[in-house]
Amino acid sequence: MHTDVTQVRLANHQWAYISAMIDEASQEILAFQISISPNKKLIIKAIEELITNLPDNAHPIIHSDQGWHYQLDYYTQKLADHQFIQSMSRKGNCLDNAPVESFFHLFKTELLAGFLPCKDIAELTELSHDYVQYFNHVRTTLKTKGMTPVEYRNHALAA
Question: Where's the Integrase catalytic domain (predicted)?
Fold first, then answer.
């Protein structure tokens, strides 16, 4: 799994912060949370969403950059409580976290580019929910052999 936080400017001049967790193998977005602050609540809600979307016996490696929120006790303890393995990029090596950075680029270019900024966090949340559904269940890529991320995951698990 890869995780990171990005920010999006809203029309009301506020920033919205997005925490996402993506499965590197299937490209599936397993957690996607939005907040007006990049705080503990945002990060914990993303982990909790991930937990509900994983099988009970899953113990993934969760990779992030060295952002402050990924180094604090609440985050490392939450991962340890669920037997998740924490992995962090080396300092100054953003390529280590390319899968989630790539997703954020697609999200911003496919959903937000060319449009007026979302008027508020409610509008961004609604559009984002629809986009994540589209991304996981409709959008196909060559990386996933022409399948959607969900189809690819199911295909891989059936093999």
Answer: 1-157
CA gap 35, 33 in Å, rounded = 7
SS3 73: helix
Q: Give CA–CA dist 126/47, Å, rounded.
A: 20
Matching residue, tokens 């399948």: 147
Would you say residue 94 has pLDDT above 70?
no
Long-range residue pairs from 121-124, CB within 8 A, at least 24 positions apart, any chain: 121/10, 121/14, 121/16, 121/34, 121/35, 121/36, 124/8, 124/10, 124/16, 124/34
Q: Residue 82 and residue 62: Cα distance in Å, rounded?
A: 12
Phi and psi at residue 28, in whole multiples of 5°?
-70, 135
